[in-house]
Specification:
This protein is α/β, with parallel strands linked by helices. It has helices spanning 15-26, 33-42, 46-56, 63-74, 92-104, 119-127, 167-181, 184-190, 203-213, 216-220, and strands at 3-7, 29-32, 82-86, 109-116, 129-132, 138-140, 159-160, 194-198. It contains ten helices and eight strands. Strands 2-3-1-4-8 form a five-stranded parallel β-sheet, with helices on both faces. Helix 2 (33-42) crosses helix 3 (46-56). The chain binds BIS(adenosine)-5'-pentaphosphate and magnesium ion.
Amino acid sequence: MPVYIVLLGPPGAGKGTQAGIVSEKLGLAHVSSGDIFRENIKNQTELGKLAEGFINRGALVPDDVTIDMIRERLSRADCLRGALLDGYPRTPPQAEALDHMLANFGGKVDVVPYIQVDEAELVNRLSGRWTCRAEGHIYHMVFNPPKQAGICDVDGSELYQREDDSRETVQHRIHVYFEQTAPLSEYYRKQGQLVEVNGAQNIEKVTADLLAALPESAKNGR
Ligand code: AP5
Ligand code: MG
């Protein structure tokens, strides 16, 4: 049976950071809706042109295009054994669509780690974030600096600050998160899939708690 893990948490909680580490440890594909959108914007595809305005002002991209994009991504060969989802779902219709598509793939949402961090810390993290141009590797100028300023340790590409990490847009993204995405924690709690993880610790400790919170089936169900 494929294994599907959904990482939930506000902007800046550390979803992308943890997904990168944990997907490698578990051998699962890392599926980040934000990364897919940014790749499409970089390549100026039709999807990228549609998504760009929403993303730059910190609003959600409409459900229909987002759901179609994720369905296509999860149907690729590297997701046959499952995936670690980062940034999807973000609305109740996206969560329901995910349940349907995973049933078609012979699986289900196995576990939903909810990474909790308070709002002031989210703003600190996002205002100091630097992202790698080539592959989206994530750094922070204080909490997780690259060896050489402005250069990605992994692939040597340039680091940049995301346009939606400006202070004003960050506030709006956090607002959108509490309005539209936070209710999903109840959806998953009711289904017994939610596990809370304290995200206000250093990166290594969050990883350790996250791994400890995964059921054995999610760690070796492949
Ligand atoms: P997306 O890219 O998903 O952004 P997000 O959810 O706002 O989350 P972030 O990527 O900002 O934060 P993160 O939790 O990944 O934190 P990170 O690990 O980078 O989405 C962007 C946009 O795309 C959305 O606003 C929307 O427009 C659109 N979109 C995406 N998905 C969509 C969907 N499903 N539906 C509709 N629209 C969608 O860490 C943040 C910083 O903190 C980094 O600098 C990192 O180094 C640092 N850090 C991480 N962990 C720690 C730690 N433990 N201690 C100290 N620092 C840490
Ligand atoms: Mg992210």
